[in-house]
Write a structure and sequence with these properties.
The protein is of the alpha/beta class. It contains 20 helices and 6 strands. The chain folds into 2 domains: 210 residues, Hypothetical protein af1432; 112 residues, Response regulator (Rossmann fold, 3-Layer(aba) Sandwich), CATH 3.40.50.2300.
Length: 411
């Protein structure tokens, strides 16, 4: 344990300002029975800075409100007191966790990831009938509050953590060794300090717990955060990290009544929802960081023994604008173009067939070949094979992995 780092993080958490009075006032009003929109609007007008941000958010594509909203009272009527409460809490939390004077690219990457998880949590909540979905949005937005605090307390450590593609489990171990607590524990302390509802504190503290159970709505929020945390990296938001754990994500999804097919169906609307969320809460700065170009993936052939199964990664390919042809025969070899990408997704007992296809493609001078394998495969990470004319990616590959493959083809 690094004593200096531990003390700096603890001091940073202790020195975080309490959420402003407007946040607590709106929170108590939203929880009160029969509160009127006029009362909430009046409270918001006493803090012009917050009120203007609420109006900007209310007019964003995320809420798709018809006509321009120019009055905070109307925003409360349209969005509801709970949604307004969560917006105010989110805005105030952001102001505290992302200090303008110390903001780094790591802060923005973490904030992009948090917004993306929030957007997907909102989407999942609406899919499974969780009410109100705004609770899921805020839980997702604040789930990594501890990481944001760590990025301020020790930016060099967090920069290394985000650049080294460390797995989630190893990252938690590194945090514990460096700070004495991991980001889940730190996030729990921060949200407790701010007096936020217990359910949000639990999501921040437990979203990396190895065991998940569903006993009440707070547990469902944790499960939603786990699923969203697994799907968001696929779409390329945040940092390039191998954080997707299919078994854990699928377990959490099953607890919510979502199959792997359901997760795949969420990918395209999630990408759109995330972009709307970033536009709403991060503006142009977030858009620049979130824009991951995949120009080399306009058309792809997915060669598999089971082409009918569409994984979340395949769904991501299509969400990013790639036309995907799925096949279980090698007839595609006759008319494939050099600009087409070929994914070879074969089980271990079909390795010889995969090698034959790769050899044929290599003889044709085709270099845009990607083999994939699940986590049980001995080479489940990503690697380049320039002599064989291709790359290897995990079966649950991300947009970051595809961007990396593009770079390998240029060398």
């Amino acid at each position: 344990m690094t004593v200096t780092a531990e003390s700096e993080l603890i001091q940073h958490i202790e020195c975080l300002p309490q959420l402003p009075m407007i946040a607590h006032k709106i929170q108590s009003m939203a929880d009160a029975p029969n509160v009127s929109a006029e009362h909430v609007g009046t409270a918001l007008r006493h803090d012009p800075a917050i009120a203007s941000k609420v109006l900007r958010v209310a007019n964003s594509p995320f809420y798709a409100v018809r006509g321009e909203v120019t009055q905070v009272t109307r925003a409360v009527v349209i969005l509801g007191a709970r949604a307004i409460r969560n917006l105010v809490l989110g805005i105030c939390a952001r102001n505290s966790l992302l200090p303008a004077s110390k903001q780094t690219e790591e802060h923005m990457k973490l904030w992009m990831h948090s917004i993306a998880v929030a957007a997907v949590c909102d989407l999942i909540a609406r899919r499974i009938g969780f009410s109100p979905p705004e609770e899921a949005f805020l839980a997702g937005l604040l789930h990594d509050a501890g990481k944001l605090a760590m990025a301020t307390a020790d930016p060099v450590f967090m920069q290394d953590a985000l650049c080294n593609r460390t797995s989630t489990d190893d990252s938690l171990i590194d945090e514990l060794a460096h700070f004495g607590i991991d980001h889940g524990q730190a996030g729990f302390q921060i949200l407790k300090k701010w007096g936020l509802p217990e359910s949000f504190c639990v999501v921040a503290g437990r979203h990396h717990d190895p065991e998940l159970t569903i006993g009440h709505d707070g547990d469902r929020l944790v499960a939603m955060a786990v699923v969203a945390d697994g799907l968001v990296p696929l779409l390329g938001y945040g940092a390039d990290s191998p954080v997707y754990d299919p078994a854990r994500t699928n377990h959490a999804a099953e607890m919510l009544g979502l199959s792997v097919a359901d997760q795949s169906e969420l990918i395209a609307p999630a990408d759109k929802r995330i972009r709307e969320g970033i536009s709403m809460l991060a503006g142009d700065a977030g858009g620049k960081l979130a824009a991951l170009k995949l120009a080399d993936f306009k058309k792809a052939v997915w060669y598999s023994t089971d082409p009918g199964v569409v994984s979340p990664s395949q769904a991501m390919l299509e969400a990013k604008g790639c036309e995907v042809l799925r096949t279980d025969t090698d007839e595609f070899l006759e008319d494939i173009k050099p600009t087409d990408v070929v994914f070879i997704d074969m089980p271990a007992d079909a390795c010889e067939l995969a090698r034959q296809v790769m050899a044929t493609l290599a003889m044709q001078g085709h270099t845009r070949v990607i083999t994939v394998a699940d986590a049980s495969h001995r080479s489940a990470g990503r690697s380049a094979h320039p002599q064989a004319g291709g790359c290897h990616l995990p079966a649950c590959f991300t947009a970051f992995d595809l961007a990396w493959a593009s770079e390998q083809w240029k060398t």
